[in-house]
Amino acid sequence: MRLVRMSLGALGPFPGEHTVDFDELGASGLFLLEGATGAGKSTLIDAVVFALYGKVASAGASEDRLRSAHAPAAAETYVDLTFATGAGLFRVRRTPAYPRPKQRGSGTTTQPAGVRLWRLTSPDAPGDLLSSRMDEVGLEIQRVVGLDRAQFVQTVVLPQGEFAAFLRADPEQRRSLLQKVFGTEVFDRVQQRLERMRADATRAVTEAEQVVARRVAQLCGAVGDLAAAPFDGSEVPLSELLASAPPAEAAALAGTVLDRLSQQAHRAQEQAEEAATQAATARTEHDRLREVAARVARRDALRREWTALEAETPSHTERSVRWEAAQVVERVWPWIEGERRAGEAMSGAADEHARARAAASPDLRAVVGEGDPDVVLKALDGELELCAATRERLKRAVALEDGLAARRDDLAARRESALAARGTVQREREELAELPGRRAGLVTQRDGARAAASGLAPAQVELAQAGTRLVAAREIAPLTEQLDVAEQSALAREEDARHAVDALARAHAARIAGIAGELAAQLVPGRPCAVCGSTEHPAPASHVRPTRAPEDPELAEAARAAAQDALQQAVTQVEVLRAAVAARREAAGGDAEQAERAVAAAQVAVSEARAAQDRVAELSREIETLDQDLADRRAAVADRASAIALDEERTEHLAARLAEDELEVLAAADGAPSARLRDEEFARRAGEARRWSAALRVLVDATDHHRTAERERDEALAAAGVALHDALRDRLPAGEIAALRHELDRYDRERARVGAALEAPELADLPDAVDGTVLARAQEALDAAQHRAEAGQREAAVLADRADATRTATADLASAVTELDAQRAAAAPVVRMANVATASGGAGTLTLATYVLGQRFEDLVAAANARLTGISDGRYELVRSAEREAVRTRRLGLAMQVVDHRTGVARDPRTLSGGETFYVSLCLALGLADVVTAEAGGVELGTLLIDEGFGALDAETLEVVLAELSRLRDGGRVVGVVSHVETLKTAIPERIEIRRRPDGASTLTVRA
Q1: 855-907: pLDDT as tens digits
Q2: What is the C-alpha to C-alpha distance for residues 993 and 1005, in angstroms, rounded to an integer?
Q3: 118: burial class by Cβ within 10 Å (0-12, 13-18, 19+)?
Q4: Which helix H or strand E contains 876, and what residues bound it?
């Protein structure tokens, strides 16, 4: 993985936009990120990790710090990173979530986090957008880089606190990282696949054995009682023989059992068929005797029925006579009934005519008179025509008369409404004349409010500036107190550092004196010195035993380094606080009380301007509403005035028409109180004449119909030869006639049925009676034969079913044995290969994945030692440990120790000092890059970024480390060093310079 270019804006301490071209910066293979503590060096590493993974480099740190507090509110916070991997060239642009001003109104809203990923053909090409979804981009970047965030900060970007993580990690953590870096997960997957295949094969064999056991149990269940009995002279039951025998022998024994059961079933079937033949013969004889007895019983029953029918013959003859007479009456009854109904109709018509004539008025009866019906009908028709003609002439007058009252009321209401409407129009015209003056007053008020509202923007600016000054003024006092404490702490740390240097000097002097004294004590005149080789010893050092135990130089050096680090941190803290206090004083421009008064005054000005602004909007709405109301009301008044004039014209026309219609109605009444009363009188007279005429016509028709019905009745009786009184006597109800017919038909059917049955051939030549004991003995013989046949058939069926079940079970057992043999044959090579890969079953002590990864780890340790030997002057060497990596596993080989060749003791890496930990971890990181670059299919580590750690090195070690880093350009890799150590500034010309501005923000400059 190689960094190509990065742009960022409004990020951390950087309010502006900056671009870093890593290809140009790292052309020499080594560059420096330098600047004061807290200026933003680590922010660039956070930017790289955030662009790739959406999180900053340090674990547990929040992404909220990415938004620059110094940037303008509308500035976008983003990181745009171009990088190259073995999968190609990519560009990712990511923005964190941060507050921004609302586009409408006041206040802020949250700008959501976003990301976009492109695949590029060149760094300056636009590229193809792969995705803009958080989850998709995260998965794709992890795929093309080959590392997750935790692994990335241990191998590529090494931030503060994470640099030595790989050195101090436990073996299982190293395993996860190295698998990703070297791409050896495939061996783990192969090992896991072989383990699953072994488990599947073992399970298949076990399942096949279980199937064989179930088939044996199925066979024992199929043979029934035979399973519990000894077999072939053996004292052991058949079930135990089958269960204990090997699968192949059990299958052979099952075949023998099947043959024996088949023979037993065949013999039982032959015996059952013989018993069935005997039962059939007994059934034939029994059925013959039972049929004879049934025919004798049927003959006797028919004879009894015939005797009963002979006794019923007189009654049958009487019913026949009654039915024939009733049939004659039914034929003439319609004419008798018709004459009766016609007489009733004639009588009712005469009564109705009498009532209609009596209901007529005396004058109508006088005009019509009495006499011949035709004359009376003619007179009534004349009266009806007179009444109809008169009412037709009165129809218009009656209609006009009915509406006269409503028309008079409507006319009066119209005149009254017109008078009121004219008054309303006059009042509205007077009100409209007052509105223009009111509008002029509102316009004057709006202009005044507009002038007051124009001061809102200046007031807001003044309020923001006053607020900034107030915040700065309030922060001066606590920062001053912190500065005092920090200065005191720096003085104390300076004293501690001085004491530590003195102690280190004393320890070195004591050690040198002790070594010189020991060597002088060993000198012998005439023998060469072990140091210089001279045989003369003019001034040997004296060996003075110290009065107290000498100080350990290594412990003194560690104490000095710790004291120096503490001093550096204290001095840095003092510088930061001094700069902060100066910046706050400059920003405050006065004391806190003045700033508070300025804020209060600005707040009042802003409130008044906002109130004026709201008043402008309110007055504008009132003026607009007033203008619209004035136009609408003027139009409405004009429309109402026109409508009033038109209504008055219509009212006068209606008054003239009303006078004409009143005269017409008066003429039509012809002296009557009203035209309607005259019309109602003629309507009443016409109704009386109509009802009288209709009743008379009905009476005439009913009389004619009765005469005709009476004549037709007499003719029908004469044709039937029956008198009227006989017909009335012999007529029967319909139900009784049907009952007579039913009884006659029943007698005839029963007589024909019984006579035909007695003459049937099967009832001829029968004995007078049948002996019951003979039939009983035949039944007993049949029952015994059927019992023997059924018992034999059941036994044969049981044996046949048992033989069939045994045949199926034997075939299933043979198939199961065959499958077991096949599974065992297939499982053997799989189990052997899995045992080798997983180091189980005595196949070895290392798993396949551990062995392969151990070889890569050995290469890594060797590559790290190649640099570590030179940097540590041969003192330290990394070695693999035989420590087991986890409880109850066979993983060995990824544990690591540091051998100190001066003491010959192997140490845990966690016991190294800060400087030792730094350069040992650096050697591991560079060795990892060497090995991965040489591997095919692994992760490419083309860029390394190292944050801090160089301050823990002495000058000599630092020079060796720089020389080692400078040689990396030969391998095509680039190393970025983040530090503020002065020696590095002079040794590394390519750099990113980060400088803090007076306002607390930072800016960067790339020098390549």
Answers
A1: 878 887 888 888 788 777 788 888 887 665 444 444 556 778 888 888 878 88
A2: 5
A3: middle
A4: strand 876-881
Residue 2 DSSP one-character state? E
Number of Cα atoms under 13 Å in the Cβ half of residue 947: 23
174 token code pair: 């190293």
| Contact criterion met (CB below 8 Å) for 291 and 766 | no
Q: Are strands 14-21 and 30-35 parallel, antiparallel or unpaired?
A: unpaired
Please, what's the b/e burial string for 878-909 (b: 16 or more CB within 10 A of its CB; e: otherwise)? Answer: bebeeeebeeeeebbbbbbbbbbeeeeeeeeb
Contacting residues for 518 by C-beta, under 8 A, at least 6 apart: 543
- Nearest residue to 795 via CA among 264, 347, 345: 264
Question: Per residue in 346-363, is it b (16+ CB within 10 Å) or e — as a string?
Answer: beebeebbeebbeebeee
Distance CA 702, CA 725 (A): 25
Asked if residue 487 lies in contact with residue 589, where contact means CB atoms within 8 angstroms, the answer is no
Task: Count other Cβ atoms within 10 Å, centred on residue 116.
Answer: 16
447-464 CB burial, b ≥16 within 10 A, e <16 = eebeeebebbeebbebbe
Q: Please tell me the distance from the alpha carbon of residue 980 to that of residue 986, in angstroms, as a whole number.
A: 11
What is the CATH number that goes with domain 1-156+942-1008? Answer: 3.40.50.300
Please name every residue paired with 1004 in a beta bridge, in sequence order, or none if there are none.
994
C-alpha–C-alpha distance, residues 108 and 456, integer Å: 19
Backbone angles phi, psi at 76, to 5 degrees: -90, 135
Please give the single-letter amino acid code of residue 199.
Answer: A
Residues 6+ apart with CB under 8 A from 285: 778, 781, 782
- End-to-end Cα spacing for the chain: 21
Distance of CA 447 to the CA centre of its chain: 58
- Give 500's contacts (C-beta < 8 A, 6+ positions apart): 556, 559, 560, 562, 563, 564
Query: Which residue, chain included where needed, has tokens 């005595």?
Result: 842
Closest Cα partner for 687 from 413, 332, 359?
359
DSSP 66: G
Which tens digit of pLDDT belongs to each residue from 921-962?
778 777 776 776 665 455 667 787 877 566 666 677 777 777
Which secondary-structure segment (H or E) carries 900?
Answer: strand 895-900
Task: Report whether 807 contacts 254 (CB < 8 A).
Answer: no
CA distance 520 to 546: 16
- Strand-strand pairing, 2-11 and 14-21: antiparallel
374 class by beta-carbon count within 10 Å (0-12 exposed, 13-18 middle, 19+ buried): exposed
Count how many Cα atoms sit within 13 Å of the Cα of residue 89 in the half-sphere of its side chain: 12
User: What is the reported pLDDT for 237?
Assistant: 77
Cα separation, 599 vs 629, in Å, equals 45
3-state secondary structure of 897: strand
Q: What share of the chain is helix, strand, coil (3-state, %, to 5)?
A: 70, 10, 20
Per-residue 3-state assignment (H helix, E strand, C coil) for 715-738: HHHHHHCCCHHHHHHHCCCHHHHH
pLDDT tens digits for range 280-295: 888 887 787 777 778 7
> Is-contact 576 38, C-beta < 8 A?
yes
Other CB atoms closer than 10 Å to residue 1005's CB: what's the count? Answer: 10
User: What tokens were used for 906?
Assistant: 């192997």
